[in-house]
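Re: that chain you flagged

S.,

Sorry for the slow reply, it's been a week of failed gels. I finally had a moment to sit down with the sequence you sent. For the record, here it is as I used it:
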Amino acid sequence: MLRGGTPTAFDRLIALRFGTAAVRGALEAGEAGVMIALDPPNMITVPIAEAMGKMKQVPLESDSLQTARDLGILFCEPDE
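Prediction finished late last night. Pasting the structure tokens below so you have them in one place:
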């Protein structure tokens, strides 16, 4: 799902944190082949291979999926 509307203070702050963490990682640590992730309260680097190496699952009863269903978005779910 995507957020819409005017950016909030949180939106601006999180974007600033992701951007500066990426630049810091590239300049100070010389890191490449990594992504920046929010691991509250810190920004961390995760190797791309590690991030892509495992399937991420969303619980079928999650609020995000229920919201999508309410909006008419269809999923291929196990019981269908």
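What I noticed first: The chain has three helices and two strands.

Talk soon,
D.
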